[in-house]
């Protein structure tokens, strides 16, 4: 095998191997998901999104907030409670709170990572795995349209400080009436939203107040705890990415058509002027005089605007003699 002989060779090799390396470590590219030859995009769901679950303990509630970002690792915003912080590179973080029924007590009980690339932070690899519901061996799942995402790497410490492995299974269900951002709760433990689309950008007028992202179950049997979430969104429909790509192509098609029409007009006009009049230089272009005057017209317009702005602050009346 020939080894790279230069930085250029190494760079080219990296470009070709990067997709394979990304798949090998189980990362998630939320903009390009492909399962069974069908493309999906979940970039509109990017950013910290939360689901909540409440358990009645008699005198108080144990409220657990599960926050996930399928596009990048979660990042706590400045000023957030350090007790509610999960390790770096966490994709799904759980925060437990004891809340008294009279509302006088609200205490953080625990915070732990459910999934992420956490091998260097006491956990394991995320090993993200997508599967198509219609292709599932489960009879019930095969009737649904959407995807199943399984992610690992998290852990939760028991009372004896022993780590329990965690995993999450998120069921993305096709719902053409939902963007996936409807009625999502705003957790007390805030995260950096970056440039991602925010939950409040979702439609405000809703008759159904059920959140698009909901808690399903938390199973503690076996050697690994399993969190199950359900996410209803139009982006889980198998034709969603195809429709979006077609819409994008139609937008670009207009600009392409306009550009080609302008180019054809200039080329044909130049050819005609050359053959009919023997024109050269600027005279080749159709309406060459007008095109040649554009820089001067633009300069005069800018000068007029500047003079108008500068003259707007002067006092009226006559100058003293």
TrEMBL record:
<feature type="signal peptide">
    <location>
        <begin position="1"/>
        <end position="24"/>
    </location>
</feature>
<keyword id="KW-0732">Signal</keyword>
<protein>
    <recommendedName>
        <fullName>Autophagy-related protein 27</fullName>
    </recommendedName>
</protein>
<keyword id="KW-0472">Membrane</keyword>
<dbReference type="GO" id="GO:0034045">
    <property type="term" value="C:phagophore assembly site membrane"/>
</dbReference>
<feature type="domain" description="MRH">
    <location>
        <begin position="28"/>
        <end position="239"/>
    </location>
</feature>
<keyword id="KW-1133">Transmembrane helix</keyword>
<dbReference type="InterPro" id="IPR009011">
    <property type="entry name" value="Man6P_isomerase_rcpt-bd_dom_sf"/>
</dbReference>
<dbReference type="Pfam" id="PF09451">
    <property type="entry name" value="ATG27"/>
</dbReference>
<keyword id="KW-0812">Transmembrane</keyword>
<dbReference type="InterPro" id="IPR018939">
    <property type="entry name" value="Autophagy-rel_prot_27"/>
</dbReference>
<keyword id="KW-0653">Protein transport</keyword>
<keyword id="KW-0675">Receptor</keyword>
<keyword id="KW-0968">Cytoplasmic vesicle</keyword>
<dbReference type="GO" id="GO:0006914">
    <property type="term" value="P:autophagy"/>
</dbReference>
<dbReference type="GO" id="GO:0015031">
    <property type="term" value="P:protein transport"/>
</dbReference>
<keyword id="KW-0333">Golgi apparatus</keyword>
<feature type="region of interest" description="Disordered">
    <location>
        <begin position="181"/>
        <end position="215"/>
    </location>
</feature>
<comment type="similarity">
    <text>Belongs to the ATG27 family.</text>
</comment>
<dbReference type="InterPro" id="IPR044865">
    <property type="entry name" value="MRH_dom"/>
</dbReference>
<keyword id="KW-1015">Disulfide bond</keyword>
<feature type="transmembrane region" description="Helical">
    <location>
        <begin position="252"/>
        <end position="272"/>
    </location>
</feature>
<keyword id="KW-0072">Autophagy</keyword>
<dbReference type="GO" id="GO:0030659">
    <property type="term" value="C:cytoplasmic vesicle membrane"/>
</dbReference>
<feature type="compositionally biased region" description="Basic and acidic residues">
    <location>
        <begin position="181"/>
        <end position="201"/>
    </location>
</feature>
<dbReference type="GO" id="GO:0000139">
    <property type="term" value="C:Golgi membrane"/>
</dbReference>
<keyword id="KW-0496">Mitochondrion</keyword>
<dbReference type="GO" id="GO:0031966">
    <property type="term" value="C:mitochondrial membrane"/>
</dbReference>
<keyword id="KW-0813">Transport</keyword>
């Amino acid at each position: 095998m020939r080894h790279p002989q230069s930085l250029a060779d190494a760079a080219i090799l990296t470009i070709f191997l990067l997709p394979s390396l990304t798949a090998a470590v189980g990362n998630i590219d939320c903009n390009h998901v492909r399962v069974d030859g069908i493309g999906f995009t979940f970039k509109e769901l990017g950013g910290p999104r939360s689901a909540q679950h409440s358990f009645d303990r008699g005198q108080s509630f144990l409220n657990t907030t599960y926050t996930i970002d399928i596009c990048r690792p979660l990042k706590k915003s400045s000023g957030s409670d350090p007790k509610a912080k999960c390790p770096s590179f966490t994709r799904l973080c759980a925060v437990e709170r004891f809340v008294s029924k009279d509302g006088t007590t609200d205490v953080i009980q625990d915070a732990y990572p459910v999934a992420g690339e956490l091998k260097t932070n006491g956990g394991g690899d995320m090993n993200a795995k997508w599967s198509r519901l219609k292709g599932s061996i489960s009879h019930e799942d095969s009737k649904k349209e959407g995807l199943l995402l399984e992610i690992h790497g998290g852990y939760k410490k028991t009372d004896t400080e022993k780590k329990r492995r965690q995993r999450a299974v998120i069921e993305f269900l096709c719902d053409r009436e939902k963007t996936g951002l409807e009625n999502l709760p705003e957790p007390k433990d805030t995260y950096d939203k970056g440039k991602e689309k925010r939950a409040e950008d979702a439609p405000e007028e809703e008759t159904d107040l059920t959140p698009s992202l909901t808690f399903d179950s938390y199973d503690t049997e076996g050697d690994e705890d399993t969190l199950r979430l359900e996410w209803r969104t139009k982006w889980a429909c198998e034709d969603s990415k195809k429709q979006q790509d077609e819409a994008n192509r139609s937008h670009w098609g207009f600009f392409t058509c306009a550009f080609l029409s302008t180019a054809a007009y200039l080329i044909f006009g130049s050819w005609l002027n050359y053959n009919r009049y023997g024109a050269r230089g600027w005279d080749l272009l159709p309406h060459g005089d007008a095109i040649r005057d554009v820089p001067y017209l633009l300069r005069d317009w800018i000068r007029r605007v500047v003079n108008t702005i500068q003259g707007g602050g002067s006092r009226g009346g006559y100058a003293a003699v």
